[in-house]
Write a structure and sequence with these properties.
InterPro entries: NAD(P)-bd_dom_sf, SDR_fam, VLCFA-Steroid_DH. By secondary structure, this protein is α/β, with parallel strands linked by helices. It has one domain: NAD(P)-binding Rossmann-like Domain (Rossmann fold), CATH 3.40.50. It is built from five helices and five strands, in the order βαβαβαβαβα. A five-stranded parallel beta sheet has the order 2-1-3-4-5, sandwiched between helices. Helix 4 links the parallel strand 4 and strand 5. Helix 3 packs parallel to helix 4. The longest helix has 29 residues.
Length: 169
């Protein structure tokens, strides 16, 4: 059983269908509004995976700016949502799935990062870059913490993103 967590559904549904067809596996998706009641969303995820052997978690949740702006121009709602979705969402989904992997002594967690956090300072997407930097370091730390427990953790750092992904177009 693989878990796919993502904000949108178009690309993700295509990916789910591709994986089911090509790998002959079962995939369960749970739709969660990570800008809304995160506790309720995590409860839905825990409920959906209860009793399942979740072997792979792909954390692809994330939002960016609707358009580029300097840090002093970022309003409170956007600032809070960037951190809530990109940092807290990824962390809490991982926290919900990890105990089952530890119990079975196997699993893989793939967090989706971004090159803006790793290559050069990302003018003017500072908060987004910071949240993706968190994802990268979070993944590295989890890898070190759980590598001897049969759990592989990695961060896939994307270099190019479409304008739709980068700016919510």
């Amino acid at each position: 059983m693989a878990g796919l967590v993502a904000e949108g559904l178009k690309y993700e549904q295509w990916l789910v269908n591709l994986l089911i067809f090509s790998l002959q596996i079962q995939i369960k998706t749970v739709v969660v509004d990570f800008t809304g009641d995160l506790s309720e969303g995590i409860r839905k995820i825990r409920e959906a995976i209860e009793g399942l052997d979740v072997g792979v978690l792909i954390n692809n949740v994330g939002i960016s700016y609707p358009y580029a702006r300097f840090f002093h121009e970022v309003d409170d709602e956007l600032l809070n949502n960037l951190i809530k979705v990109n940092v807290e969402g990824t962390s809490k989904v991982t926290q919900a799935v990890l105990p089952g992997m530890l119990k079975r002594k196997k699993g893989a967690i793939v967090n989706i990062g971004s090159s803006v956090a790793n290559v050069i300072p990302s003018d003017p997407l500072y908060v987004y870059a910071g949240t993706k930097g968190y994802i990268d370091q979070f993944s590295r730390c989890l890898y070190v913490e759980y590598k001897n427990s049969g759990i592989n953790v990695q961060c896939q750092v994307m270099y190019m993103e479409s304008l739709e992904v980068a700016f919510g177009m």
